Amino acid sequence: MIQSLDPRITRAEIEENNSISPLKDLDQWETYEVFHQKKRGDQHMHVGIVHAPNAEMALLFAKEQYGRRGVSVNIWVVCTRDVFTSDYDDTDMFDVSEKQYREAGGYKVMEKINKYKKANKI
Amino acid sequence: MSDKTVAATIDLLYKIADDLLIIGHRNSEWTGLGPILEEDISFSSMAQDKIGQSQGVFTILHQLGEPEMDTNAFHRSAESFHNAQFVELPNGEYDFSLMRHFLYDHADQIRFEMLANSSFEPIAKLARKIKGEIKYHVYHANVWVVKLGTANKESHERMQTALNICWNYALGMFEESNYEKTLINEEIFVGENELKKKWLENITPFLEKASLKIPSESTWKPVYGGRNCNHTGHLKPLVLEMSEVFNIDPDAEW
Predict the structure, then answer these.
(1) B81-138: per-residue pLDDT in tens?
(2) What is the pLDDT of residue B50?
(3) Looking at per-residue confidence, does B9 or B74 come out higher?
(4) Closest to B41 (Cβ–Cβ): which among A7, A28, A65?
(5) Cα–Cα–Cα angle for B223, B229, B230, nearest 5°?
(6) Domain hosting residue B151, numbered range
(7) What total of structural domains would you count in chain B?
(8) For an interface test with A, which of B42, B89, B155 has the most A Cβ atoms less than 10 Å from its Cβ?
């Protein structure tokens, strides 16, 4: 029997040569994406995943995993399988070179303001 | 409050505090050994809540002149605990612990709901404060019991066996004290009988949903004794283990 400093292990009377059979492939629960909301009206933010056999249990686990510090008012869980994602091979779709004119920074406002200030000695 | 009312209140509070402390400790024995990580975290977190709730009740006991909280929790012999024998039983398999969690937490929820209207304000206040915590505990228990009761043949049989083993011990939670009349008349607590009635009402629909059968009433033999400090042999080692660290240096500052 395994003698451990942890009395719970000793009590379990586990054989020294205990052969634990590993889990079969896929013999585990799927994942759910967890979103939490800090206060009413805020957007739900993605905070991580949990393993669960169904949505209800995912919610059960999500509450303790991500909501136990008292910062949530609401939680969503979404089966990872149901999330439709873009492909990392398509990351180049997000390239934004030569498009500065679309950004507010593209307007040379400060330049104009400074020019005005100088002209009017403000 | 009259002396008799104080004595009745103290007796009631010890039952509650000791139940919480002992089941909290028992359930915490699963920490690191739970079936999966997420459940391990949930079950451990709830066990911690139970210890925290017992702390709240021990604080009120201290205000009523009983020993200081740590002394009361860690410096008492097993023979002076008032918990039901149900909560001191060793864990065994996870099915047993889940079933005990289900049967105990439903009772705990109703007891505190009833105490939220108690004429004894400190316990009423505590009951209102921990309402949300207990709500999650009961929700957790309900989801697991229904899921495993209906998942497959093995899980169903395990849960039914666990229910059969737990049943008479669970009924022992409602052992009446000599103070029932005082507690009811003084509107401190509506009494164990009322609690048991409501408990049966609350657990029945979930057990039905889980396709689990409550043992037939003719076989009911509540295991009493715990409320009068009569315990199984399992409590003493638990209390020693629980107070092991504390007793290494009882005066240590934490």
Answers:
(1) 999 999 999 998 999 999 999 999 999 999 999 999 999 999 999 999 999 999 999 9
(2) 97
(3) B9
(4) A65
(5) 50
(6) 3-248
(7) 1
(8) B42
Q: Which positions ≥6 away from A24 have C-beta within 8 Å?
A: none
Of B29, B36, B140, the CB nearest to A60: B140
Q: What is the CATH number of the domain that holds B164?
A: 1.20.1260.10
Q: Is residue B238 part of a domain?
A: yes
Specify the pLDDT at position A94.
83
- Residue A50 at interface with chain B, using a CB cutoff of 8 Å: yes
Rg of chain A taking only CA atoms, in angstroms: 28
> Higher pLDDT residue, A31 or B253?
A31
Verify whether the Cβ–Cβ distance B42 to A52 is below 8 Å: no
Mark residue B15 as left, alpha or beta (left: phi above 0; alpha: psi -120 to 50; beta: remaining): alpha
Q: Is residue B206 part of a domain?
A: yes
Q: Is residue B253 included in any domain, yes or no?
A: no
**Chain A hits for B136, Cβ within 8 Å:** 63-64
In the predicted model, is pLDDT for residue A9 greater than 90? no
pTM: 0.88
Query: Between B33, B140, B241, which is nearest A7 by CB?
Result: B241
B220 domain-assigned:
yes
Closest of A52, A50, A17, A15 to residue A36, by C-alpha? A50
* Closest chain A C-alpha to B199 CA, distance in angstroms: 23
Closest-CA distance, B117 to chain A, in angstroms, reads 26
Please give the Cα distance from B63 to B121 (Å, whole number): 12
Q: Give me B141's structure tokens.
A: 């228990």
Query: Mind listing the domains of chain A with CATH numbers?
Result: 25-120 (3.10.20.520)
List, for residues A65-97, the tens digit of each pLDDT value.
998 777 889 999 999 999 999 999 998 888 877
